[in-house]
Amino acid sequence: MTAIRVEGLRKRYPRFELQDVSFEVPRGGIVGLIGENGAGKTTTIKAIVGAIRADAGKIEIYGRDGAKHGKDLKQDIAVVTEESFFHEEFAAKDVAHVMRRLYARWDDALYRQYLDRFHLPPDKRIKELSKGMRMKLAIATALAHRPKLLILDEPTSGLDPVVRSEILDVFFDFIQDEEHAILFSSHITTDLEKIADYIVFIHGGRVVLSRPKDELLEQYGIMKCGLDEFPKVDAADYAGFRRYGFGCEMLVRDRQAMRRKYPHLTIDPASIEDIMLYYARGGQA
């Protein structure tokens, strides 16, 4: 059974439409949700957590219909965004007082463990905390009610590499329980390369790619050629391209096959960021 199943999700706004978005988040897995600003990532997350009502489609969380069982499912879901939900005059101990009333499985001892792990003072007001410490507090709060599903919307944005690494370790620990799962939306694709199992790429309100991360990194590549050679490359062989100076670079879906077909051209491995950028510039899945 999957943790999240999204099927045919649609949501129309005056200037944007989410179109037939479908993907799954498996138990024990981390799915990275990528796409440029305005692609539909946050709209998708809002629909999953019940913050907006979709125009069409179905969302299941641990096999239960999100629309019918949303209130009960909230006990199993924790959401962390780059912005704090708490009043700036609150301290960590005040947050615990509020959350204790909202979540049946709230665990004070576990909360204190995370505060200690993150070196967060229980009496210091949120407005006095750095951005990194605020994010650690949000994560400690999310995990202290013992959710099964963690939904993250840009949790590491603007944080320094040391803090990001510490937070990624916590996420990795969380999914060691095979009942747990994470949906992780981020522009920092290097973070996703470290811990994600699957990548879902949304572009223009549609899912362009939904594949295992290791498969993408193993198969995709950046092929390089001169401007005079570019017209000789079959357009069906690349998903996107860019011209620069005296040459061209193309995103290819199967770099081993392209090495056999174009043995005289250089083909380097592609990163997740490369894949996103080249598809966004033009190409078909």
Radius of gyration: 21 Å
- Helical percent range? 25-40%
Oligomer: single chain
Percent in strands: 25-35%
Under the CATH scheme, which class of the largest domain? Alpha Beta
Can you tell me the number of structural domains?
A: 2
Summed up, the helix count is: 10
CATH architecture of the largest domain: 3-Layer(aba) Sandwich
Please provide the ordered H/E string of secondary-structure elements.
EEEHEEHEHHHEHEHEEHEEEHEH
Could you report the average pLDDT, rounded to the nearest whole number? 91
What is the name of the CATH topology of the largest domain? Rossmann fold
Keywords: ATP-binding, Nucleotide-binding, Transport
Pfam families: ABC_tran
InterPro entries: AAA+_ATPase (IPR003593), ABC_transporter-like_ATP-bd (IPR003439), ABC_transporter-like_CS (IPR017871), ABC_Transporter_VariousFunc (IPR051782), P-loop_NTPase (IPR027417)
Can you tell me about this structure?
Helices cover 34% and strands 30% of the residues. The chain is α/β, with parallel strands linked by helices and 285 residues long. The protein folds into two domains: 2-215, Rossmann fold (3-Layer(aba) Sandwich); 221-269. The strands form three sheets. It has a six-stranded mixed β-sheet, with helices on both faces. Strands 2-1-4-5 form a four-stranded antiparallel β-sheet. Strands 12-13-11-14 form a four-stranded antiparallel β-sheet, with helices on both faces. Strand 12 (240-244) and strand 13 form a beta hairpin. The model has no long low-confidence stretch (mean pLDDT 91). Residues 4-229 form the ABC transporter domain. Keywords: ATP-binding, Nucleotide-binding, Transport. InterPro entries: AAA+_ATPase, ABC_transporter-like_ATP-bd, ABC_transporter-like_CS, ABC_Transporter_VariousFunc, P-loop_NTPase. Pfam families: ABC_tran.
